[in-house]
Design a protein that fits this description.
This protein is α/β, with parallel strands linked by helices. The chain has 8 helices and 7 strands. The chain has one domain: Rossmann fold (3-Layer(aba) Sandwich). It is globular and about 50 Å long.
Length: about 240
């Protein structure tokens, strides 16, 4: 039985973040999510915050700490895309993606680490993507933001590893979402043909890897990149 923890998932109002929050709740944890709008699954505490705004994140953490206790597990999941080819990519297309996906993760982890250092326990889980190390045309900004999370996790491991804190990266591949369901069928088949598993992942398959990394059985794993991509990006 895994110890029950206080968990915060950023961007937990939809997609993978929602599923991660849902699975932590199913396993009996105390769960909070940040969202710019909307809310997390039933049973989660939703706090309004924007990961590009340090003050709003600080307020969100303060609310969570008051209602659920110090955050022991943080899942930096909030992310955006601004896909376009390099020559068409504006400075703002690049910097806005970096500010949310990378600097947003830094702000989140920095604030979470205060309580973790005090408790001498913490689980930091950064949600990356297969394209972080596989690459993707039209995603120079997104791919750069996601690969940088690997360096962040490995530096955190060296800095905080002696204090009972682990930092790992989960790199999902193509996930079954409303977005992939809306793609034309021939395009879906073409994508699936490039994946050795021959199918997309369910959000739950990603969520269960995240909850396992947060649990007692993974205490000696840190600085790792765990792909959940059906073999698409082998070589992490």
């Amino acid at each position: 039985m895994t110890t029950q923890r206080t968990v915060l998932v950023t961007g937990g109002n939809r997609g993978i973040g929602f599923s991660i929050a849902e699975e932590f709740l199913a396993q009996g944890h105390r769960v909070a999510v940040t969202a710019r709008s909307g809310s997390g699954p039933a049973g989660a505490l939703t706090v309004t915050a924007d990961v590009t705004d340090t003050a709003s994140l600080d307020d969100a953490f303060t609310t969570v700490e008051a209602e659920l206790g110090p955050v022991e597990v943080v899942v930096a999941n909030a992310g955006i895309t601004r896909d376009t080819l390099l020559l068409r990519m504006s400075d703002d297309d690049f910097t806005s993606v970096i500010d949310t996906n990378l600097t947003g993760a830094f702000r989140t982890v920095k604030r979470a680490s205060k309580g973790m250092l005090k408790a001498r326990f913490g689980r930091v889980i950064l949600i990356s993507s297969v394209v972080g190390l596989y690459g993707s045309a039209g995603q120079v900004n997104y791919s750069a933001s996601k690969s940088a999370l690997v360096g962040m996790a490995r530096s955190l491991t060296r800095e905080l590893g002696g204090r009972g804190i682990t930092a790992n990266v989960v790199a999902p591949g193509v996930i079954e979402t409303d977005m992939t369901a809306a793609l034309p069928e021939d395009q879906q088949k073409a994508y699936q043909a490039s994946i050795p598993a021959g199918r997309f992942a369910t959000p739950l398959e990603v969520a269960r890897v995240v909850t396992w990394l947060a649990g007692d059985d993974s205490a000696y794993i840190s600085g790792a990149v765990i792909p959940v991509d059906g073999g698409l990006g082998m070589g992490h």
